[in-house]
Design goal:
Blueprint lengths: L1 H9 L9 H6 L8 E6 L7 E5 L2 E7 L4 H39 L13 E5 L7 E4 L4 E5 L7 H14 L7 H7 L5 H18 L2
Length: about 200
């Protein structure tokens, strides 16, 4: 059983056909009110930031409005991608704390312990998740984004347990058994992996 669990969460899975950077570049541009502000300091570049829900486009004084507007969609898309990334990160951390509180009898986020870091990563294509027990760092593959919540939760929980039990011993699996949808999540990921390896492209 231990070997089966390990193969699902730790073994190689071929790269997804959707490149992470390409996905970020394809983020839909939301309709934001934007305001053009001129800057004496800027000579050629155009920048953007958010202020009270509005996008502020900062441009050189001598650049025409038409030219500034040609940059607007790209700049707004970049800000949207950043905002969504921050939001996804905050939700991931909140979900991890919820799972730890609900299923673990050890407070892995206790203030007296070294802080736990959990984040989405785009360079982890051979694993669904990973955990450095010593550094207390958890990395969750971006490929899980968009999958059912119970599947994401199962991977997060798997890595949270590694903060307590670094190996795949009987004690480790006794913790996993507390998450009732864990086996269903394994089956989902096994089916996903099979489809990726046999029907991709």
């Amino acid at each position: 059983m231990a070997q089966e669990q390990k193969s699902l969460f730790d073994d190689f899975l071929e790269n997804s056909s959707t490149d992470a950077n390409e996905a970020l570049n394809q983020v839909e541009v939301k309709k934001f009110d934007y305001e053009i502000r001129r800057s004496k300091r800027r000579k050629k570049s155009v920048g953007a930031y958010r202020e009270r829900g509005k996008t502020i486009i900062v441009a050189p004084i001598r650049m025409s409005n038409k030219e500034v507007q040609s940059y607007a969609a790209e700049l707004i898309a970049e800000l949207n991608a950043h905002d969504e990334k921050v939001s996804a990160q905050e939700l991931l951390e909140k979900r991890a704390r919820h799972l730890a509180t609900t299923y673990l009898d050890v407070d892995v986020f206790a203030e007296e312990l070294a802080p736990v870091s959990i984040k989405w990563v785009t360079n982890q294509n051979s694993r669904w998740g990973s955990c450095s027990h010593i550094e207390r760092e958890i990395r969750i593959s971006h490929r899980l984004q968009g999958m059912p919540q119970y599947v994401i939760d199962a991977v997060i929980f798997h890595e949270l347990v590694h903060l307590i039990v670094p190996d795949h011993s009987a004690s480790f699996y006794s913790y996993l058994d507390r998450f009732s949808q864990y086996d269903m999540a394994k089956e989902y990921l096994a089916g996903y992996s099979f489809a990726q390896q046999n029907y991709n492209g």
